[in-house]
Amino acid sequence: MGINNVDLAAARAQGVVVTNTPGANSASVAELTIGLLLNLLRPIQQAASETRLEWLAAPNELSRWWAKRSDW
């Protein structure tokens, strides 16, 4: 990305600090990439969501208790 497309003078005039931190989020990007690739092979997120919905729809005391305390 870099900062070569940022109007530094305009940013400075507005009091906006512009910094460049190359490589600061490389590990996070790599983790997300691997996670998305794994999700293509095994749709774990979709399965988890469907299981959660089915479980919450089940008429039992534990699922009702969890639904009250969950922000899904």
Short account of what is shown:
This protein is an all-alpha fold.
Question: What is Rg?
Answer: 22 Å
Biggest beta-sheet profile: none
Count of DSSP E strands?
Answer: 0
The oligomeric status of these chains comes to: single chain
Envelope shape: elongated
Uncertain runs are none
Structural class: mainly alpha
Proportion of residues in β-strands: under 5%
Walk me through what this model shows.
62% of the residues lie in helices and 0% in strands. By secondary structure, it is mostly helical. It has one domain (8-69). The longest helix is centred in the middle third of the chain and has 16 residues, at 26-41. The model has no long low-confidence stretch (mean pLDDT 82).
List the helices and strands and how they pair.
Blueprint: H1 8-13, H2 26-41, H3 44-57, H4 61-69
Descriptive tags:
72 residues, mainly alpha, 4 helices, 0% strand
